[in-house]
Write a structure and sequence with these properties.
By secondary structure, the chain is mostly helical. Helices cover 48% and strands 5% of the residues. A two-stranded parallel ribbon has the order 1-2. The structure holds zinc ion.
Length: 224
Amino acid sequence: MCKLCGEDCQIWGDFQVSESLDLYEQVALKVNKPLVIDSSKNVDWIRQQVRSIESTSTQPYLIFLRRDGRAVINSRIRKYPKKNAKDLIADWSEQIQLTNALFDAFPHKKLKVSYEEFATNSEAIARQICEFLEVEYEPEMLNYGTHEHHVLGGNNGTQFLVAQAQSEKLKNPFVQVPERSKSFYQNLSGISLDLRWKQELDPSVARLFEEMAGRINQELKWEV
Ligand SMILES: [Zn+2]
C-alpha cells in the first residue's frame, strides 16, 4: 500500500507485476518517466535486479548512500528498543561489508554519496548526482516535500515531512511517526542534517560500536 495515499493510490492501487517486462520497465511505463530509482538497500535484491536488466536496453547506475554507522545504530536502537545493541551493530557491519563488495564488483557507472555531506551541502551534491545520472539539475529537486511521491517502503520521518507539507492534498496519509519523534520532524524545514545520535547514543554502545565496527566506520565517520 502507498504510504502517502493509502489504498486509492493512482500508481500502486491497481499495479500488477507482469512476467513479460522487467519491474523497472513496468514502473517507467506506469509513471511515464524514463528514470526509475530503486532505493532498496538489500544487496541480494539489487544483484538480482541488475542481472535481470542487463539483458535489456536499460542502463543501470549504482549509488551507495552512506552514513556514519553511529547515527544508523542510534536510529535502529530508537526504532527497535528491545533488540540487543550488539546484534544491531553486527547486522550493520555485515550490511556495509556486503554493500562494499557489491559496489566494488559493480561493472557499470557507480557513485558514493555521503548522507551528511548531502544534508549540509545539498545543492552541490544534488548537482553531482544529476551529472552522474545524466539528467539536468533543477532547484525544485531540493523541495522534495512539495512534489508527488508514492512510496511503498523507506523512511517514515522523511515521508511524514512530505505528508506535512502537502496536508491539504494528503488528508489521511498512511505514514505516521511515533509521538516521541513528532516535534523533531515538525521543526524541520527542508533537508537538514540529523545528528541526534551525538546526544542520544549511550556511551557504552558507542564503545562497543568502536570495538566491533570502528574499522569499517573509519571512512564513514562524520566528525563536525
Ligand atoms: Zn500513492
